[in-house]
Amino acid sequence: MLSGRNAGDEKCDLHRYPLVRLGADPRTTVPVTKDSDPDAGRPVTIAPGEEAYAALLVSGGARDEYEAKSITLGLQSGKSGSGAGKPVDVPMPVDTLYADDGRLVTYWTTASGYSPDFIMSK
Q1: Which residue among 29, 57, 59, 122 is least crowded, i.e. fewest CB within 10 A of its CB?
Q2: Alpha helices by DSSP H, the chain
Q3: Rounded percentage of the chain residues whose pLDDT exceeds 90
Q4: Is 102 exposed, middle or buried (0-12, 13-18, 19+ CB in 10 A)?
Q5: What pLDDT does residue 113 have?
Q6: CA dihedral sign of residues 63, 15, 114, 72
Q7: What distance in Å separates the CA atoms of residue 59 and residue 104, rounded to the nearest whole number?
Q8: pLDDT one-digit tens code per residue, 53-80
Q9: 10 Å Cβ neighbour count for 50?
Q10: Which of 34, 22, 23 lies closest to 119 in space, CA to CA?
Q11: Is 122 exposed, middle or buried (0-12, 13-18, 19+ CB in 10 A)?
């Protein structure tokens, strides 16, 4: 699960879902599971100190497995298809992840247990 805390002094809007890249290919982002949007089209707003969550499935049992030695996460702006700020490298939970074409990410939510439901049933 991906999580982020608003460390700023103002509310923060998280649009759609995180732009996640697994491995060295900077052009390919993890596809989103569209049915995980908690409030279609509306950003998730978090106040200072609050957290938001998105689930990431790196291997969905599909074809074309590959090794990923990095995770990069970017945020989306209010304009569809555009990024907000620079992407950041996320600490790896292990030295190498084995990802495949079945990878998925969910939309942002403020309920910590909500987002995994959408990828665990895939």
Answers
A1: 122
A2: 116-120
A3: 33
A4: middle
A5: 78
A6: positive
A7: 8
A8: 999 998 887 688 888 899 999 999 887 6
A9: 14
A10: 34
A11: exposed
Residue 85 sits at φ, ψ, to 5 deg, of 80, -175
Give one word for 85, left, alpha or beta, with left for phi > 0 and alpha for psi -120 to 50. Answer: left
| DSSP assigned state of 35 | G
Provide the residue type at 47 as one letter.
Answer: A
pTM score, whole prediction: 0.84
* Cα–Cα distance for residue pair 17/37, rounded to 1 Å: 9
User: Could you list the pLDDT tens digit for every one of the 122 residues in the chain?
Assistant: 777 778 878 888 999 999 999 987 666 889 999 889 878 889 999 999 999 999 999 888 768 888 889 999 999 988 766 677 788 898 888 998 888 888 999 999 998 877 777 777 55
Strands 56-57 and 104-105, how do they pair?
antiparallel
- How many angstroms separate the CA atoms of 15 and 97, rounded? 27
* Token duo for residue 85: 């700020």
Residue carrying the six token digits 């403020």: 110
